[in-house]
Amino acid sequence: MENHPKEIAQAPSSEAPAVLSIKDLKKNMEVRGTVKRVSEVGVFIDAGLDGEGFLHASEYRPLGKNKGIEFHVGDPITVWVKAVAPDLKSFRATLKEPLKYRLSDLKPGMVVTGKVVRITNFGAFVNIGARNDGLVHVSEMSDEFVRNPADVVSVGDEVQVKILKVEGDKISLSMKALIEKEPEPAEEVAEPEEEEEAIPTVMELALQQARERAKKQERRARTKSKEPRGPSPVDDIIARTLQYHREQSKK
After folding, report:
1. How far apart are CA 220 and CA 26, in angstroms?
2. How far apart are CA 158 and CA 211, in angstroms?
3. pTM, full prediction
4. Contact by Cβ (8 Å): 161, 111
5. Residue ranges with strand state E in 11-110
6. What is the CATH number that goes with domain 103-178?
7. CA 71 to CA 77: how far, in whole Å?
8. What are phi and psi of 70, to 5 degrees?
9. pLDDT digits (tens, 9 = 90+) for 35-49
10. Fold classified for 8-94
11. Considering only CA atoms, which of 82, 92, 104 is closest in space to residue 171?
């Protein structure tokens, strides 16, 4: 849901131009003016227009009670347009700020701005312009441990929050989710230390030399066993016998 700039109508001043006609007003527009007249039924408002606004007493005085907000002539007042009657050059006003969001408009992950309206020991309630206030639980107020929510926010503070979830009429908010965390430095992997070569003892050197001598003798013995040998006497007798038989067969 897109947020449009808030439209404001107010009495003439050197800082802001005025909306000069009642017909220029729109429903839910914010109007700033002064109290022109106070009566039993309500308050009449001068907003610098070609007519006047009217705030019914039920808007600021609880039903069945005589006391409520007290207004005096000349008091500054901020109201919102409830209805416009251009022909009568008047508009009906309310003290209740119109809702910015319907509950169905709120989705997890949305970032909205609101005002802290109440603090408890388990968190802070924030008016984000919906029908119900949202709760920032104490565990969602900071990425550090919070013992007392009042140490983090005060009533009236404007805060930016992220919507975590909406369940029925309950709106869960988070301030912690908007805190940018610095990336943690990469851990340095220590290179394995080279083990120092142990210095052999005299006994170990003697054993090592003895092993080397034994290996040399073994190699010499293997080499000698592979050298060509002359014909044995038995082989010589067999060879001469065969030659004799060949010569006799030729005769």
Report:
1. 115
2. 86
3. 0.49
4. yes
5. 30-38, 42-46, 52-56, 76-85, 90-94
6. 2.40.50.140
7. 9
8. -100, 130
9. 999 998 999 999 999
10. OB fold (Dihydrolipoamide Acetyltransferase, E2P) (2.40.50)
11. 104
